[in-house]
Design brief:
The structure holds two protein chains of two kinds.
Chain A lengths: L3 E12 L2 E12 L3 E5 L6 H9 L6 E6 L2 E2 L10 E4 L11 H11 L4 H14 L15 H13 L5 E5 L7 H18 L2 E6 L2 H7 L2 E6 L2 E6 L1 H6 L4 H6 L4 E10 L4 E6 L2 E6 L10 E6 L4 E4 L7 E10 L3 E8 L4 E7 L14 E6 L5 E4 L4 H9 L1
Parallel strand pairs in A: 3-8, 3-9, 6-7, 7-8
Antiparallel strand pairs in A: 1-2, 1-4, 4-5, 9-10, 11-12, 11-14, 12-13, 14-20, 15-19, 16-17, 16-19, 17-18
Chain B lengths: L3 H25 L15 H8 L1 H34 L5 H13 L2 H15 L5 H25 L4 H8 L4 H29 L3 H6 L7 H10 L4 H29 L1
Helix pairs in contact in B: 1-11, 2-11, 3-6, 3-8, 3-10, 4-6, 6-8, 7-8, 8-11
């Protein structure tokens, strides 16, 4: 059922001697919602512009359904783009903006009118046809840009951070709407964003990019729960990294790891482990359990920050050795141990089996800088 | 007192600006033969003006010259601005700077050098030499006006047009030119006004076959100020006002 529509092979691009894309391979399926996720400068926009035809790779090829598109001009590609700042033609009405692509195809007037009206109805803007773009709100302009791109019935819709200019609430609404549109139209969406929450909630698959290289390709769940490396773990969601040392490898496919002096038993990871080897124990804030100081389990620390978020209570806990731990717990008024005051001593533990192990990487520190940049 | 100072100051500035114009307009309707005393309301100077065939011809000559010079310099200037905006090449900054040199250099220098060139190539002084000269000094103004508009131009617009299936030529026709139209009009109007009232360069490069208005007025004034000139000045003033309102109206409409 999953048929490859767009094939990217060995795509390489340099700008002023800096590698933006590095021998990138990617297969994009027909009808999927694929997100390119990464920090600024990771090559995601360049990759999208290459598919649209605004940039050409130094090496490599782009094939769509068997047809080579690598050096085809944008106007001859069956792909359309929704631009970051919409790029609506300011001198044309909403109707003329949406009709532009069909006029270029020299479609008959009646067909143009009908298809434009359909496209505008799809984004609930049929009453705004005579307006000029500047008379619309940001969200409405966004819808016009989407209508203008989908009215041509492209095989692939490219979206370049289309929601980044909208406020939080509108962004959420548009996310739902884009998903709905994609389901209704059944066309492939390739969506560029630096917002990991957006990527996780909308995509069928996520491509995590850094320095022109694919860090991980997988479903949102895979990327979040089983990050392929430290970069992905840090970039997608918040994570606690606990330094651990392999204590023993057991026969029953488990290993014993020394974390903060505690001996914990974990599932054996995919990579090879041997006693004495350092590794990272990754725990998402929601995997952390905050216990009373009298509890036997866990590591001692004290609460330094508390944020009430409505459905969850997020706290920052400093362990005695200085490690900072983020914890996010569901609000439970019946739990007497739940409500801690600032500075109060607690113990930190987690649910075994919810952890994820990654080998210690030598280049841990520079990666941290890359995320902040 | 603090409130009165700025008001008085502004009033003085505006009086200074508008008293000469007011005097000109009022005296154009003066029935008296001399320009210094009021002899009642009359349109006689307007009549005299339109009966002065040399003057009317000079007026038409000037209008035609300004029209053609503004149009030619807008065409060349717009393409120059597009090239300077769109392409990156060596020496682009130098070329950019050279525009300002022409704009800032004393007009008399341009006048002498143009005359020298025309004499060198043996061009007969008349409409063609005037047109070439006027296009030369209008060009930098047009280029700079259009470039200012292009600098605020969203680079994604041409890409969006290409993305939707327009080739380069269609994109230019349907997106680029309409978007920079206000700048083209502004550049054209600027060229038109510059050409219409130019005296210095025109004095050097015009010939007896093609007399233009500013030079005609200049020679009239030399033999004594005739009230006809006031009538002419008033007409020119009305004409520029209409042009100004028109250009503002077009600008406003294009923003809508």
């Amino acid at each position: 059922m999953k048929q490859t529509l767009l094939t990217l092979r060995n795509l390489t691009k340099q700008f002023d001697g800096k590698k933006v894309l590095d021998a990138l391979d990617l297969d994009i399926f027909d009808g999927e919602f694929l997100t390119l996720l990464g920090p600024s400068g990771c090559g995601k926009t360049t990759l999208l512009r290459m598919m649209a035809g605004f940039e050409h790779p130094d090496e490599g090829s782009i094939t769509l359904g068997g047809q080579d598109l690598t050096y085809t001009e944008p106007e001859y590609r069956p792909l359309n783009t929704v631009f970051q700042n919409y790029a609506l033609f300011p001198h044309m009405s909403v109707f003329d903006n949406v009709a532009y692509g069909l006029k270029m195809e020299k479609r008959p007037k009646d067909e143009i009118r009908q298809r434009v009206e359909e496209a505008l109805a799809m984004v609930q803007l049929e009453d705004f046809m005579r307006r000029k773009p500047h008379q619309l709100s940001g969200g409405q302009q966004q819808r016009v840009a989407i209508a203008r791109a989908v009215v041509k019935r492209p095989k692939v819709l490219l979206l370049d951070e289309p929601l980044s200019a909208l406020d939080y609430k509108l962004r959420r609404t548009m996310q739902v709407e884009l998903k709905r549109l994609q389901r209704e139209l059944g066309i492939t969406f390739i969506f560029v964003t630096h917002d990991q929450e957006e990527a996780l909630s909308m995509s069928d698959r996520v491509v995590v990019l850094k320095d022109g290289l694919i860090q991980q390709l997988g479903t949102p769940r895979e990327v979040y729960e089983r990050p392929a490396n430290l970069f992905t773990a840090r970039f997608v969601g918040e994570t606690n990294f606990f330094p651990g040392t392999v204590d023993n490898t057991n026969d029953d496919d488990t290993i014993t790891v020394d974390v903060f002096g505690l001996k914990r038993t974990f599932r054996k990871p995919d990579f090879s482990v041997s006693p004495g080897q350092p590794l990272h124990v990754l725990l998402r804030p929601e995997d952390i359990r905050v216990l009373a100081p009298s509890d036997e389990d866990g590591v001692a620390g004290k609460v330094v920050e508390r944020n009430y978020k409505g459905s969850t209570l997020d706290s920052v806990i400093h362990l005695d050795d200085g490690t900072e731990v983020l914890a996010s717990e569901f609000f439970d008024e019946d739990d007497p141990t739940f409500d801690y005051r600032l500075g109060e001593p607690v113990r930190v533990s987690w649910v075994d089996g919810w952890e994820w192990l990654l080998p210690a990487e030598p280049e841990d520190v520079p990666e941290e800088d890359a995320i902040d940049a | 007192m603090n409130r009165w100072l700025p008001r008085t100051y502004l009033t003085l500035v505006y009086l200074l600006l508008y008293i000469p114009i007011a005097v000109l307009v009022v005296f154009s309707f003066n029935d008296s033969r001399t320009g210094y005393e009021w002899g009642g309301l009359s349109l006689r100077w307007y009549e005299a003006l339109f009966n002065n065939r040399a003057m009317v011809r000079a007026m038409w000559n000037s209008l035609w010259l300004a029209l053609s010079a503004a149009t030619v310099s807008t065409l060349i200037g717009a393409l120059t601005a597009l090239a300077l905006h769109r392409y990156r090449f060596r020496g682009k900054n130098v070329l950019n700077g050279m525009l300002f040199v022409v704009m800032m250099s004393p007009e008399i220098v341009l006048a002498i050098s143009l005359l020298a060139v025309f004499l060198l190539v043996g061009l007969q002084l008349g409409y063609v030499s005037l047109l070439l000269a006027h296009v030369t000094f209008c060009l930098p103004f047009v280029v700079i006006t259009v470039m200012a508009r292009l600098s605020g131009f969203d680079e994604r617009l041409p890409e969006a047009a290409r993305d939707l299936g327009a080739n380069d030529f269609t994109m230019t026709r349907t997106v680029l030119i309409p978007v920079i139209m206000p700048a083209l009009l502004a550049g054209w109007l600027l060229g038109f006004t510059l050409s219409l009232d130019d005296v210095v360069v025109s004095t050097f490069v015009s010939g007896p076959s093609y007399e233009i208005l500013p030079l005609r007025i200049y020679s009239m004034v030399r033999v004594g100020l005739k009230p006809e000139v006031n009538a002419l000045g008033t007409l020119l003033l009305a004409f520029s006002l209409v042009m100004l309102i028109l250009s503002q109206w077009i600008l406003l409409r294009s923003k809508r």
